[in-house]
Amino acid sequence: MPTERRESLPALLRRVRACQMCAAHLPLGPRPVLQAARGARILLASQAPGRKVHDTGIPFNDASGERLRDWLDVSREQFYDPQLFAILPMGFCYPGKGTSGDLPPRPECAPAWRAPLLARLPRLELTLVIGQYALAWHLPDAPRNLTEAVRGWRAALDGAGPHTLALPHPSPRNNGWFKHNPWFADEVLPSLRAHVAQLLQR
User: Fold this and answer.
1) What does the pLDDT look like over 36-48, one tens digit per residue?
2) d(CA 96, CA 102)
């Protein structure tokens, strides 16, 4: 059996955090930011770290994270418990600034690391897909229009798990979307919070 198949999750995480694959393309250099443990029940599949997350090395340690924790109705202590939440962005390093917001996740990252990491998270019961890049990977048959994908929330949470639910990005840049889609706060968030609370109480 190849060494990679026998590798433990902690050993794999050490290799990921030492990754230099995209060093030549990263303006601030590599600093993979992720969180995972074998007992994690909820996966946050996001896009890529922003500058503040890169500086601190803490995932979602920014305004987006504050909003996301409010959506889920969880404390920082719960959110940063890797036995509860795995946080695996599509790109683990800050990609740099583009003309409007940050650049997309580096394309090398997900093909290299995503499958082996997910294979070592056997207890996931809910995957929250945040943004277009995560949507394309985790829900390839969902509508490419993010609003339409989020509108499928009822079917996504229905029946036996595991469940995969598309979410808009919690960034303040999306405030216009939230204003024009009040059904998200009125309908989706109460059900999402109830589902998360049920998982975390087990």
Assistant:
1) 999 999 999 999 9
2) 6
Contact 134, 92 (CB under 8 A): no
The secondary structure of residue 103, as a DSSP letter, is: P
**What three-state secondary structure class fits 129?**
strand
Q: Which two tokens stand for residue 103?
A: 């650049």
Q: pLDDT class for 5, splitting at 50, 70, 90?
A: low
Q: Could you identify the residue written with the tokens 């962005």?
A: 89
Q: Cβ–Cβ contacts within 10 Å for residue 6, how many? A: 8
Which residues, 6+ apart, have CB-to-CB distance to 8 below 8 Å? 120
- Residue 66: exposure state from Cβ atoms within 10 A (0-12, 13-18, ≥19): middle
Indicate the pLDDT class of residue 2, thresholds 50, 70 and 90. very low
User: How much is the pLDDT for 98?
Assistant: 87
Please report the pLDDT score of residue 4 as a whole number. Answer: 59
Instruction: Specify the pLDDT at position 6.
Output: 85
Q: 140-160 pLDDT, tens per residue?
A: 999 989 999 999 999 999 988
Closest CA to 177 of 197, 154, 147: 147
Angle subtended by helix axes 9-17 and 109-119, to nearest 10: 160
Whether 154 and 164 have beta carbons less than 8 Å apart is answered as no
DSSP single-letter state for residue 97: B
Degrees, nearest 5: CA angle 176-100-97: 130
Residue 166, classed as helix, strand or coil, is strand
